[in-house]
Amino acid sequence: RDTRHVRITDAGRELLPIAQRILRDFDDALGGFGEFMAGRSGCISVVTLPSTGIALLPQAMVAFSRTHPQVSFTLTEAPADALLALVEEGRVDLGISVRPTPRQLLQYHHLLDDPCVLVCRRDDTLATRASVPWSIFSTRPCIVSSAHSSIRHVTDGVFLRQRDPVRPVLEYPSVGSCGALIEAGLGITALPVLALSLLNMTTLAAVPLQRPVVSRQISIVTRIGRSLSPAGKAFMESLKHPDSCPNA
Fold first, then answer.
1. Are 198 and 176 in contact (CB under 8 A)?
2. Hey, is 90 helix, strand or coil?
3. How far apart are CA 248 and CA 246, in angstroms?
4. What pTM was computed for the model?
């Protein structure tokens, strides 16, 4: 450097590309952090019931991705008990499930009521009726879901209030196998409407159940004390208010 000019030294000339790369990396990192804090990037881990994983989540994820293309998802499917345990242990961000018990460290946000219907063969006389009472399960062979299923908690609650006892002939391990068992003529069952998405209804029929009208409550479940990422919060809001999501 003299009184009129400033010139980079030989050592500075060698360090210049390194300094420029560091500044570019810093700018990129700062920009990425800004995108993350704005909820426009990140990864959201979701665990879902099999039925909501087919009937509810795909459309919600596609609609969210249109406005948040840099956000990615990991998706796990599990029955209710295992699902709620994953959320409570902090292994996923949020779950789509039934309402947890008060003893669990979980917070729920109600999404929708999933009404129960009777499922029978299409050639069954019950298929022609506008509705059927729950007492029908005391008079016909019926099958029920396994004990850890969210469906079983709903049906047992109704069966216990029936005047005549309900004696299921079998517990089915999955909704898919339930459809095959009904088609084979083993019996009838009660399912929430969203679970019908897991069945091939070609030879089956669904009839509304009344006296009483019963629904499975579907909720967003998060762990108490765990803060969601900005993207996670935005996705949860899009689930709660799907009509407010642009292009949804």
1. yes
2. coil
3. 5
4. 0.77
